Every structure is written in structure tokens, then in C-alpha cells.
């Protein structure tokens, strides 16, 4: 049952094959078994069981709230949850219990979803590995998959297995691990530069970043307000669409949400043919650092569309290479501003020093933030200084506009959807990953995902195939602003073609049959 | 916590709107003499009459002072600028604080329509150009009563620009002539108020009240077109009357709803402007005039003694009557302005740009607001002059004293007496008594009806003018006055009446 998709388990609940409480308990027990993954910071067991009980009553009375009623979900620990600790994986917010729910959390709860817990991340979502949080790194469930282990046995150089686990990617790595390890059916991440799509690619999941303004940010503890969007991590595209249907829409509490009415429910048609589609391949995304395996899959995916009758053309996004440095200026500037509120006065960590207000601020912030956060605050304040503002912030904003215009031009040239890699390569081992610092890693790992946030476009990472090492590789589709449904429809067609294999975690789970029942092997695998 | 700055407005002061009689810059160059300082209740410490210093001595240049003002007016609205919390003065501390006001992480600003309308209305009343598109910015500084670490304001593109304010200053021998003056308005911007810090130096702690945090403010920037305390004070008083007439701010300085910072410099005419100082903590119009004149004098003295003026922030100490450097510990502030990313540009419409079929609840129409503008004080004064034939300066006084215009109009309604007589009685006799007794119009023991009746008696020559004045005296509880009346009655009854009985009857009649 745990291996099923959200839609399938929803059907099972409706048919009474399983009750919400049974489902909840299964997930809770799996969360305990997979505790070593460090996917969750807080497991809200009591809350989830109580919600399950209420859901059960509704099902008994025939008053189900819909597809999400009774479905276990997880939420990244940078979304405010009323009465449940929300830490952002930072000392600064340890023990902080928000008095309100983020709009997206409230919407999920209103639909009857069961909140299993709050998932791990890089501190304040600043990172691309889920390795830089105060609660420690998240381990990629694929490190323990049959697929990966078998490949490693063939490799004579493999080192000590226990220390050789892989990162999930980030910063929503906890949410990705939670869904990937079957402890829930969907999870909320956040996506500022790729933080949902990157771990989705590394964990073999669908990672969806909606259009900016389609989903409320109210209650999401911000990284970069002008780029943040709540992200959705699921095991298939249809599930992402169901969750999006529950979340999308204007929010009076977020003035940047768009008021255009959207069609609900968010149903995805099954594309029978792609011959009317035009797929754009941005040539600037072919960078030297791209692994040959990813490059090969990317090109095979393009071939697949072409062979099915779609028009595939090369497009140019000429300002792509400036995206990362531009992002660095805009991101750190907003970070410097957003983090100013953490002064230890109203909530969160406060130091013991009380000789003066200034000394208290300084010590509180030194103790509360890690090096990455403090480094970004420092750079951001530098860029915002009166003497630097024009040279850095204003220029970066102009570059941002150029990057956004690149996309507009590509779409105006007739392209429906862009196809790109999500990451340079598959997930790397933790010990390998931490050889580079957070800043270098973030700059490298966001290279394909980040420009999308500059432009506010919808994008989704779809798992495509396993690498030679037996690890997932994802590709990214980018759509026109507010054409999220069209984007997901294309992604759904593609997903069906590639038949990505299910993660085999039998060793981790007693309930192996439940997982195996849904197992599919790559039938039309792009790897041949 | 060490910061010694007190940000509280002083409370409980009466007559915050008292007429300012101190400065006399319009008589610059006139023969020196002590000006009549009619300010009540304060001994002027360290305060010299301004013009003594501006006297031209042989071989010396004249000094000219340049004064600009930044005025913060709290918007009169039910809820705050970006949150739904109530706005109320003197509520229990921290009882009007939403999650946004406390800057809980993840909360976002939502613009209050009423505050935007108030800004547009004020802009229109002050002859401003209303920007159809304006932007919000973050201004960063660390302060305990600024929970977000930044204030949302309008730095780059404010809601209204390029206006003007016309005010009248008294001049002439008896200050009886009103000369109109204009001060340009640079801009009006919407911004958030901060909370309040109360520093307890004894226990070295600071108490924070966030009730005020996030209340909508109109920052009105007046160009440096003024040249002395009286001009500044009169301009502020006029602005206050306009805001009150519009209902966009209660503009009560004692409650901190109107706060003024003054930028002051002196120079020799024809030479470049001098280094300016900023004087804060001006919480009444009277102190505003005093502080500016003191500061002008201080700068002149400093320069004449070979000193230099520092570009600094100074605070007015109203007990000592002087300004003092605030010695900002942080040194030069860099506010690191940044666009507020959570608020889209504020777009306003007029009849020509209003999109067809727009939901009136979702758009703000400048032309519609223009139509609802109430009568402004300048028009009210004109009407008074035309309708009752009073002098312009009388109309100023009627509007300047809180409640006096209404009192006057009520008397006019009920009496047969000539409007000129009413004007004279209200402005001279009645107001004189109130001032003597240190009372506000609302506290007057004399009702409009009583005065109307008295004026009727006077009009029908039932009583004489001096008798009427004595009645006023009694009404105002002057104990000696009743003895005079008793004397008159005894005289009229040829001493046949019993004085005790006369007193009883009089007291009853006068409802004392």
C-alpha cells in the first residue's frame, strides 16, 4: 500500500481497502524504521493520528473531503505550522512554535491530509545538498536501494558502505527522502533556485515548481521573496497535479498571488499524441561540467519527442551564464533583509549577553546562524550599501530582466516547453559533496534550475532513468508562466514513456510486498 | 540597554495647539525690543528673542535661516497599514499586535485600502501630483521597537509629489495682518510607524510596546522654504487643520499622531546654504517654534564665535528650552534601501485610465476621491470673512483654537446680536477668559447658549457692556466678580436688598 501513488491510495481509502488510521500507522512505523535517513526534524505523530481519526469518521459518514482526505503528507520545516515547532534547521528557530499555519499547510489540512511531520533542510533553505542544517545531513534513500547496492558490489573500489551514503540534494532533501522512502505520499518543499527540483532529481521523484504567484507564500519562511515558491514532491506527475489543485489560487494574505481564476480541479488530460508540441532545447544548457550520462539521456529524451512527431528545436537563452552571479547578488541582498528580524527579541534564540541591545543582537545572531547564513547576510548587506547599490543590486535586477526576457523570446518563437537537464550528474556521496563549500556547491548545482526562478516560470523535474551506478537521473521541463497545467500534461506523457523504475528498499521495509506489488522495470527505458 | 533616547510623546499637556506668539522674524531688522512672549506656563530658559541676534551690526553680514520639515502624520484608520490589527491610542501594551506586526517569520504585508485613500486625499488637498504608480521599499536599521529590522516606506517613488501648502503668518504692528506664505511640498509617502521603547535605566532594561508598530503614517516632506520658528509652526498648524478637516489624521501632537522633525541651517544671503542639523522630539507646535528659533540662534552664535556646525541630529529639551546633540552611537547610518518584494507596485486610476468593468472594491479612483474632498480650512476662513465680515486674522484664530469655530457658529445661530459683535465677544472676551483660566473650549463653563443670551440682553440694551463682561467674569468663576454684581444690585435697589439674598439669587440665576 505504501508504494502506491497518491491517487491509487486515495482510491483504496474510498473503497475501504484501508482506513486512514491504518495508513497513518504504517507511515509512522516506516518513519521510525528510516529514522537514520534524517528526513524528518519533527514527527507529528499525535497530530497525524488525530487527523487520521477525524478522516476516518468522514469516510465512515461518506463525507470525504476529496482526493487528499486521509493521505499522509510531509512539510518542509520552513513552512509555519500552528502548534508544531518550525525550525528552518537553524539554532535561531529551535523551539519556535508558530501560532499559525502557512496557507499551503492550511489548504492541505482543509482537504483532510494527515501531517506526518516537518522535514529536514539546509539551514534556512540555503544549500543544495541538505547537508548544512543544524540537525545534520539527510541521507538519500537510494543509498540503500537494491539497484544501487548491486551496482556497487560490481565496483571493486567501493569503500566502506556505511560512510559512503549519498546526499539527497537540496535544500528540500528531507521532503524528497520522506517521499522517496515511502513515509508519505507527497511533501511540500520550497524552491528558490531549484531546491525542490534538485532533490527530486537525486531521489527519483517528480519535483514541481509552480509559477510564481500561483501558490501562496504566506507562512513560508522566506529565502528570496521574489523567487520563492512552495514546491511539490511526489512519486508521479498526476499526484503533483492533485496537490497543486489543492494549493493553487489567490490568497488575500499574499499580495503577490495572482487573481486570475484557475481551472479546478487540476486534472491532467492524457496526451495521446505530441505531434502538435514544440520542444525547445536551450543550447546554453550544454555545459562542459554536464556528465555524459545526463547529456546522453537529455538527447535521447529529445529524440523520443521527435520520434513521436513533436517538433524539437534548438533555442538560445543567451544570458543564462550570468544567472548564477546575478542570483548571488539578489539572493544575498534579500537574505540580509529577511534575516534582520531574527534579533532574539520576539521569538527564537536569544543569547545570555545583556550588556546592551547591540551586544545582545550580535551574540544572538552569531550563535543562531551558521556560517552559510552569516556569509550571505554579510554579502547582501555589502551589496545594499548606498555606495554599492547601483553597481550590484540594480545591475543584477537588470540582468534578471534580461534572463526573464530570454525565456519570453524562446516561448514567443513558438516553443511550448523547454527540455533541459535538472542536475549535472546523479547524487554524489556525502564525503565527496562536502569537499566543496556550500557556496561553490550551490553555484554549481543550481545551474539548470535557477534561471527559472528569476523568470517566475513553472518547471518540473521528472525522473528518467538510473545511471550506471544505479542512481536516478532527472530531466527538467520548463513551461510558460501560468501554463502549469500544460507543462504537467507534457511531463505526464513523458513520464509514461520512460517508465522510471521504483526504488527497491526491501531491506529497509518489512512490508516489502507492498512496495513490490507496484514495481515496474524500465520497459521503454531510455537506457539501452 | 544603554540607548538613552526616549521616543515617547509627552502626554497630558493642554493647549498643545496654542497660538504661537514667540518668534517675530517678519520684523527682522526692525528696532530691537523685547517681544511680547505670551506663551503660558513656561519660563523661557536659555531662549533669547530671535531678532536680537539678527540685528545687523556694523561690518557684519545678516544671517538668514533655512528651515525644512519632515512631518509624520498617523493615518486615522481602523486597522494598520499592512495588517488587520486595530489602531487605538493608549490601549494596554502589546494588545494590538498581529503576527505581521510582531514580524513572525513567513508573514506578509497586505496594503490597507483606507490608508491609500487617506494618502491620495491628503495629496489632493495639498495640491500634489498623485503618482498613478508608486513603490514600496525597505529601510533597514536595528532597533528594538522595529521588529522586522526594517521599515516599509516609499523611498523611490512616493504616492504624491510636488504640492504646496499655503499658510498665513501674522504681521504688522499688532500682529493683526495676515500675510499668505507658500511652502512647497516635496512628497507624501506612505510608511509604517515603529513601536515604542520605554527605557528603564534604573533596571537597565527596555520595555517594548508594539501597539503602534505598523500603524500607517503619511510622511509629508516640506521643502526648506521657511525661515523661522513661527513660519514653521504656522505651516504645521495649517497642515494639522487640513488633515483634521480631511479626517485623514487626528493629528493630535500630544498623542504622537503628528510628529515633526526640523532641518535647520543658517547662511548669509547670497552665499551657499550652511550645514544643517536635524532637530527631533518636537511634540507640540509651541515647542516646534521654540526649538527652531533656539537652534537658529545657536548656529548663528556658534558661527559668529568661529565654531562650526556639525551635520547631526539634535533633540529639543523642552524643560531647558534648548536643543542637544543626540550623539548617535551608530555613527553614519546606511539604511540599505531595497525594493519591498512582497508588495506589487501600487497602481491608482483616474477616470481616463480606469479599466472598463473594474471592480470598484479592487481599484482606487483618484477622481472619485477628489469629488469627496471636504471643505478645507482656507475655504472655511474665506466664507467666515464673507459671511460675517470679520477680519481674516479673526478667521484664523477661530479655526486655530480647537472647538472655537463650532462654539462661534452655535452662538451665531442663537443670538440676534450682530456677527461682528459676536466675533469680538468670542475672540476677545470669551477666548481671553479661557486663556486666563487655562481652559480648552470644551472645558468652558460658558455654553454657546449662555453667551448668546447674554449678547441678546446686550443687544436689547437690557444690560450694559460692562455688566455683560462682569457676568462673563462670574460665569468664569472669578470670585471678585460676583461682589461687583452684588454691588450693582444693591445700588439699583438703593441698598434695600439683603446682600446674602442677592448673592443666593445671583448664584442661582447664573447657575454657579
TrEMBL record, chain A:
Its EC number is 6.3.5.7. PANTHER family: GLUTAMYL-TRNA(GLN) AMIDOTRANSFERASE SUBUNIT A, MITOCHONDRIAL, TRANSAMIDASE. It catalyses: L-glutamyl-tRNA(Gln) + L-glutamine + ATP + H2O = L-glutaminyl-tRNA(Gln) + L-glutamate + ADP + phosphate + H(+). GO terms for cellular component: glutamyl-tRNA(Gln) amidotransferase complex; mitochondrion. InterPro entries: Amidase, Amidase_dom, AS_sf, GatA. One of its GO terms (molecular function) is glutaminyl-tRNA synthase (glutamine-hydrolyzing) activity. Belongs to the amidase family. GatA subfamily. Residues 25-488 form the Amidase domain. It comes from the Eukaryota. Subunit of the heterotrimeric GatCAB amidotransferase (AdT) complex, composed of A (QRSL1), B (GATB) and C (GATC) subunits. The active site is at residues 76, 171, 195. This is Glutamyl-tRNA(Gln) amidotransferase subunit A, mitochondrial. Keywords: ATP-binding, Ligase, Mitochondrion, Nucleotide-binding, Protein biosynthesis. GO terms for biological process: glutaminyl-tRNAGln biosynthesis via transamidation; mitochondrial translation. NCBIfam families: gatA. Allows the formation of correctly charged Gln-tRNA(Gln) through the transamidation of misacylated Glu-tRNA(Gln) in the mitochondria. The reaction takes place in the presence of glutamine and ATP through an activated gamma-phospho-Glu-tRNA(Gln). It is found in: Mitochondrion. It is an enzyme of class 6 (ligase). It comes from Homo sapiens. Residues 148-167 are annotated as: Disordered.
